[in-house]
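Batch job 17 of 40 flagged for manual review because the log was empty.
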Amino acid sequence: MIVDGVWALTFGNGVSLGDANALYFSSGPSKEFDGVFGRLNLATPSLSVSRSGFSVNVGANKVFQTVTIKNESSSTVEGPIGMSVDNLSSNTILTNSAGLTTNSIPVGIPYVTVSSSGLTPGASANVVLQFTLPTHGGITYHIHTVAGGTAP
């Protein structure tokens, strides 16, 4: 990520300086004519991801897989919680995507919404991924979770 004309960087402290899981910055883009204050949310390591096996519906030409996201922390993970499907094998398409990422890196990756309201400690949410049936080979991908703020 590149931020033009950075003036300051600081992590929040969980009290007067904002969320302790966020990096705040100020900058002066356009040769310091403009001023910008921003916040970058850190990845949420308190979310675990588990996947079921794949199930195939040949008649519908679809492959399904259930992904479970669980809050392993002792505090609520704020919503919305999204999950991007990165490095998807070229032999298939994620057909139930909510859109493409615009607010998280990498940009332009399909994502699904896991929970719009967040997850309390120990709670989990399931999402079923739907893929087109590959003509050859298996389905591979990486998952990235994003929590809080706007859609990924």
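Reviewer: the log was empty due to a logging misconfiguration, but the result itself is present. Residues 29-32 form the longest helix (4 residues). Unflagging and moving on to job 18.
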